[in-house]
Amino acid sequence: MDLRQTLHYANYMASQGWIVERIDNTNYFIKKFPIIGSILKLQRPERLDLNKVRNLAEKHKAFQIIIEPKSESDVPSLIANSYKLSASPYLPTKTLQVDLTKSEKAIYADLQRNIRTGIKRASFAKGYGWPTGEHNLFKEYSTPKELEIFREAWKKSVIYSRYVPTVDNLINLRKSFPSSYSVFLASHNIIGSIIGGVIFTRVSHDSVNYMYGFTSQEGRTSLAHAALLYQGILWGKRMGCKVFDFEGIYDERFPNKSWLGFTRFKHSFGGFEVQYPGCYTRKCWSNWLRIKK
């Protein structure tokens, strides 16, 4: 199951002001706009039912429908019903996944040298969940006050134009993915300043997803992010997940050259590529969809 189809994610989207219609374990997200109606979004459902899409579009007076199918087998039906491939997908159309059913030793063997270097610099301590070391101290953040500190470090680590969730967003995300369903992890330097952070969420035992991440200049120099990501892989394995999903890499079909750098970094962890069809949209200003049989 995709992350977007979980009940946890549905709760998070509802906390962000979206209307969520959950029908037959499928999440349909609706965003209302004054006067003009709404948009209806459906992302990687296990089963695509265009009749249900039509009914919900009519119910909520949708002027646009956004569908990101999970399988290429859904594409012919979308095209037959006047959906167009968008040049700007909402979700990454290609991702990298690490097989967590392999032994920890085998997973580590797949890592490239620079990633191993970053992990070794963290000087892993034995016995406790997260590693500690001379260069990097790792801590999990969960309370509202801690999440405020986490966000402040995030804001300082990235350029002004980069999106950073609000504190309320982070609190709602943590509430929606409670306990063992999410980890907010930060790496510190020896004096205690946060030099990198990551957020991992998981989908039952299917996968653990790399949702967000940031690194300061000091963190990039010390390769702190490599150690942080490796902790996400180990956490997913401890939780019994089957794969670790990096949630997006560069896709030649929808080229975004700004993705090339972190794609090379993610490939340093090994794994295998997974490709999705893309994003299909349909305008329906009349609020009436005629679905072909």
> Looking at CATH, which topology of the largest domain would you report?
Aminopeptidase
Distance between the termini: 27 Å
> H/E order of the elements?
HEEEHEHEEHHEHHEEEHHEHEE
> For this structure, what is the CATH class of the largest domain?
Alpha Beta
Described by strand count, sense and barrel closure, the largest sheet is: 7 strands, mixed
Tell me, what's the shape?
A: globular
CATH superfamily of the largest domain: Gcn5-related N-acetyltransferase (GNAT)
Radius of gyration from the alpha-carbon trace, in angstroms: 20 Å
Q: Extract low-pLDDT stretches.
A: 124-135, 288-293
User: Roughly what fraction of the amino acids lie in strands?
Assistant: 25-35%
Q: How many structural domains in the coordinates?
A: 2
Under the CATH scheme, the architecture of the largest domain is: 3-Layer(aba) Sandwich
How is this fold's topology laid out?
Blueprint: H1 7-15, E1 19-23, E2 26-33, E3 37-43, H2 50-59, E4 62-68, H3 75-80, E5 84-85, E6 94-99, H4 104-109, H5 113-121, E7 137-140, H6 144-157, H7 167-176, E8 182-188, E9 194-203, E10 207-215, H8 217-222, H9 224-238, E11 243-245, H10 260-267, E12 272-275, E13 280-283
Parallel strand pairs: 3-4, 10-11
Antiparallel strand pairs: 1-2, 2-3, 4-13, 5-13, 6-11, 6-12, 7-8, 8-9, 9-10
Helix pairs in contact: 1-7, 5-9
